[in-house]
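Q: I'm teaching a short session on how sequence maps to structure, and I want students to see two examples side by side rather than one. Could you give me a first protein with its sequence written out and its structure tokens following it? Keep the formatting plain so it prints cleanly on a handout.
A: Of course. Example one:
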Amino acid sequence: MSVNDRGTIKWTSMMLPEHVELLNQLKEKQNRKQKPILDEQQLEENGFQLMMAHKDNLLINIKYYANYDYHNIKGYIDKINYQDKYITMVEKVSSGNYTRINFDVILEVTIL
């Protein structure tokens, strides 16, 4: 004897739209990622890679944390602001599309 279980499909027709929305929000909160804590060695390596890429105008990939998830951006460093602790990146030299990334959200810097 087998049971044909349709999972949550059989219950969604009896649920109010507000309940469905709350369940979706709960699912989204459960899928959130936490920002990892970087050790001193990784922070120093990231700083070294950023300075080297800025000095030699090298293409880099930065993995950073924003909106409870990890993101990657490839481009060239336009400016490093040590006082306000952020970098400005341009995705392509001719595009003029600038992105500002704070130092405290940078997880990993890779020179490509």
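Q: Perfect. Now a second example for contrast.
A: Example two:
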Amino acid sequence: MIVVTGATGNVGQELVRILVGAGEQVTAVSRRPAQWPDAVRHVRADLADPGSLRTALDGADALFLLVAGEDPQGILDEARAGGVRRVVLLSSQGAGTRPEVYRHPAAFEDAVRRSGLDWTILRSGGLNSNAFAWAESIRAHRTAAAPFGDVGLPTVDPADVAEVAAMVLREGGHAGSTYDLTGPAPVTPRERAEAIGDALGTPVRFIEQTRAEARAQMLAFMPEPVVEGTLAILGRPLPAEQETSPAVERVLGRTPRTFADWAARTAPAFR
């Protein structure tokens, strides 16, 4: 049995679908109720409370783990007690490039490496689904606002992250590996807005925010150190943060999906 935490998220929901389609027994873990096919066992639990995971983890072979909560060791202790032998952690690229800022995912990575379990770490760059933050303004006004409009980053399709996670969870040969997951090429915020407009068949006007405007908006839902780290990546990325990684193609045997692919697939959310 494979336990998927964050099962209602952009990566987790797709991962559950892939695993069930492959005939795996899956326990989907989320904090809120969710509708799942009959083949999926659902457990409501919170990563902030490792003990709440006990029922979900009992009898499991593998765990897909998000960076959430403050006690990675407690989560991994529960996993080991439940019989888990393999853990796949969805971390952040920033844990490798800016560990002094992204301390939370870096702490989870350290705990996973010391867990005694077979482990694989997936470091995601920015997800294409972050563009859902534009959904309301695009639906209402056909506008999309972001800072640093002409700085490109190789954001990744969450479906590609899910496919890589499914492969790593189901196959051997990945223990002890850390994979950086990116899209096939850097794409700027301006180009992302244009791609969504192309998918809709109507132009989307890009509005470039100042750094201060973006910072104020982000502080409403992110801690200040993470806001500063995120703005640094968006505005002055390190060379490693702009490089495309071969990991998706190496694991899946195909090139990563483009942002335009993602926009075409998700266009109804912006109509």
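Q: What should students look for in example two?
A: Point them to this: The mean pLDDT is 96. Also worth mentioning: The longest strand covers residues 86-92.
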